[in-house]
């Protein structure tokens, strides 16, 4: 569902990070959402980007996002930072691929950098519901820590701890996770790829099982070692076969032949283009699917993923 919104507020909340608030252009309230949800934002120039909602899910008067100005931006973060109050744009209704487990007896939130945004919404929900949790925020310096005023407020401060590299505050993640370990404890991680991998490794070493670990990436894994080889994509519904060249994505090869799949991030982050695989073995390059989902090899993201086998048969 497409929504028409207006930028009611935009302000810096840390070095290179801006908060933007969207309200409905016609007044009233926005659709309800759950903690960890994100929205697709349709930006000037035809760009579409996903941003996590960082306000508490009880707040339907506005949606708030926090956006880091990426030095190597493909245009999205620059376009967001250029938006002025009063600007009108379209967004999609919230979707959630990073939900809190309702059965968790205790929650550990681990944020790295701009990964704070979905976890901030989770913390607001947990605090309002009176559910036990702790919240760790890792940044290079205090000046790069967004939303500190909210995080250090009386209602949140008892749960929150900032870990800034330049303040040299020691923190042993493995020891902390081992201390909080219980069968009903769940860990939620968001941030750069290396940060997520390190936190999940620490959690696994502390005894956590995969069902207790939840993560959301903001960028695809950069794996330059994966060679791009041409392969044939067989469309089961039509019987057509399309050759995907070494220098093009699967989605672009499909579009070239008049077959369009829904696209949004085009980086394997959002899962919008997820397509069922009927035969063959995908070469997964996304960060949307879990390891267990990848191992099943029954779906892939054509925006960035390819094929390990000469022929990949898909449900198109």
From TrEMBL:
Checking Pfam families in the record gives:
Fer2 (PF00111)
Source organism's superkingdom?
Bacteria
Location of the FAD-binding FR-type domain: 1-101
InterPro entries reported in the protein's UniProt record: 2Fe-2S_ferredoxin-like_sf, 2Fe-2S_ferredoxin-type, 2Fe2S_fd_BS, Beta-grasp_dom_sf, FAD-bd_FR_type, FNR_nucleotide-bd, MRET, Riboflavin_synthase-like_b-brl
Q: Keywords assigned by UniProt? A: 2Fe-2S, Dioxygenase, Flavoprotein, Iron, Iron-sulfur, Metal-binding, Oxidoreductase
Top enzyme category = oxidoreductase
What's an example of a GO molecular-function annotation for this chain? dioxygenase activity
Q: Per the record's keyword annotation, is 4Fe-4S included, yes or no? A: no
Q: What is its EC number?
A: 1.-.-.-
Which segments constitute the 2Fe-2S ferredoxin-type domain?
229-316
- Indicate what this protein is called per its UniProt record: Phenoxybenzoate dioxygenase subunit beta
The record lists the organism as Paraburkholderia aspalathi
